[in-house]
Amino acid sequence: MNQEFLQARIIATQAMIVAYEDAAAALASGVQSYTLDTGQTRQTVTKLDARGLQATIDQLYNRCATLEARLNGSGVINARPAW
């Protein structure tokens, strides 16, 4: 994948994180329902959806971290001590 594509996906994912966190914060502050507009879809969430919102936020953070690792060329290295 090219860098421009990955950077665009990171920006889109970060925007979705902000939208979902705003919804979760509004529900936590006492609002009974909140209209969540991600730019692609629009849905109304209530306090009953709070657990699902948090799961989605966690998935988005994981996706963002994966995309950033791909963009920056990060990988996992397993090393053993030399002794």
Write the layout of secondary structure elements.
Layout: H1 3-28, E1 33-37, E2 42-46, H2 50-72
Quickly count the domains.
1
Structural class: alpha+beta
Summed over residues and divided by their number, the pLDDT gives a mean of 88
Outline the low-pLDDT stretches: none
Q: What characterizes the major β-sheet?
A: 2 strands, antiparallel
Counting DSSP H or I runs of 4 or more residues, the number of helices is 2
Structural key phrases:
two-stranded antiparallel ribbon, 83 residues, alpha+beta
Task: Describe the fold and architecture.
- Helix 1 packs antiparallel against helix 2 (50-72).
- The protein contains 2 helices and 2 strands.
- The N and C termini lie far apart (39 Å).
- It has one domain (3-72).
- A hairpin with a 4-residue loop joins strand 1 and strand 2.
- A two-stranded antiparallel sheet has the order 1-2.
- The mean pLDDT is 88.
- It is an alpha+beta fold and 83 residues long.
Describe, in short, the structure shown:
With 83 residues, the chain is α+β, with helices and mostly antiparallel strands. Helix content is 59%, strand content 12%.
